Amino acid sequence: MSSLDLRAALGTLGLGLAASALPFPARAAEAMAEEPALEPELEIVDPHFHLRDFSDPEAPGERYLAQDFEGDIARSGHRITGSVFIECGIMYDAEGEDAVRSLGETRYVGELAQAHRKSGLASGIVAKVDLTRTEGLEALLARHEEAGRGHLRGVRNSIATASFPPLSGIHNDPKLLQDPTLRAGVTLLGRKGLVFESWLFHPQMDELADLAKACPDTTIVLEHLGCPLGLGPYAGKLDTTFAEWRPALARLAQCPNVVAKIGGLGPFMGQMAGPETSSVSLARDWKPWIETAIELFGPQRCMFESNWPANRPASTYGQIWNAFKLVTRGLSQSERAALFSSTARSIYRI
């Protein structure tokens, strides 16, 4: 299988990366037939999706619009009653100082949320706001609240970084969460009833635990279960990754203000869709990670996510939710309700 440009493969994350290569295609599951939805009546709030609408028609990367997401939901047959947009650095204002240009993305999604209120599209928005601002941060958050038409629910500043290929093009400040000014900003989020999220890789999870302890009154969301890696030096060594990941996740779970998003599993673990991919195979592969998270955090502090369309290299949209349903069939009705909808509704005030 040919490798693809990293920007194309992971563009849905809005990373703005330089050209590199990853051993999986960006749209692997697109040609796959969607599976019938299991338990189609089960309510789902999807707390993690992205959109990509480039103002430059020649911009590299794939566009993914609201109608594309709604089409994927409809084809899946699952009952998605709400969703949370997570910033991806795409729909920024073309002009203005760097710190305020992300208002364009919040405004773009806020207008969509108003127009699609009945469908629950972007019921909540997690925006990009530079929390290291020493002046004017509260006013900037108020501007994002206005731009989001009342749908702002949190802020994401990420630290995901790796020094090895194929991820060496990912450049975030790995020490950002230790910055005293950022911690003051995270504390401000808590006072305003907003959550803090950060995308990171599993070797960086203790940084988030340190932040959670320093900002105990702010709800902090761990995305993608800490993004356990199966690429680079971790390729073919998921047992090693699991042995590193589990104790780090346990340390995070000891912080009562941390909530875990279960999803985003697949591409960064080295998994990609193929003829044999099904919800059964995904459930088998993801079960140890999912069950460990639920064991450590409890259903009330866990929520399933699609991470769509960034997870398209690994599966169809419907297969993700079918896999989650298969893994949790032994849980009680109230536990499953928390995992599929009520935790997300509570955290994001949907």
Describe it for me?
The protein is of the alpha/beta class and 350 residues long. Helix content is 37%, strand content 12%. The protein has eleven helices and ten strands. The strands form two sheets. An eight-stranded parallel sheet has the order 3-4-5-6-7-8-9-10. A two-stranded antiparallel ribbon has the order 1-2. Helix 4 packs parallel to helix 5 and helix 8 packs parallel to helix 9. The radius of gyration is 19 Å and the shape is globular.
Strand content: 5-15%
What sort of overall outline do the alpha carbons produce when their principal axes are compared?
globular
Tally of contiguous helical segments: 11
- State the helical fraction: 25-40%
Biggest sheet architecture: 8 strands, parallel
SS content category: alpha/beta
Rg of Cα set: 19 Å
The tally of strands reads 10
| Beginning-to-end CA distance, first to last residue | 42 Å
Indicate the low-confidence ranges by residue numbers. 1-24
For the biggest β-sheet, the strand order reads 3-4-5-6-7-8-9-10
Query: What's the average pLDDT?
Result: 91
What is the succession of H and E elements? EHEEHEHHEHEHEHEHEHEHH
What is the compact description of this entry?
The protein is an alpha/beta fold.
Write the layout of secondary structure elements.
Elements: E1 4-5, H1 6-10, E2 21-22, E3 43-49, H2 66-76, E4 79-86, H3 98-101, H4 103-115, E5 124-127, H5 137-147, E6 152-156, H6 180-191, E7 195-198, H7 205-214, E8 220-222, H8 238-253, E9 258-262, H9 279-297, E10 302-304, H10 317-327, H11 333-348
Parallel strand pairs: 3-4, 4-5, 5-6, 6-7, 7-8, 8-9, 9-10
Antiparallel strand pairs: 1-2
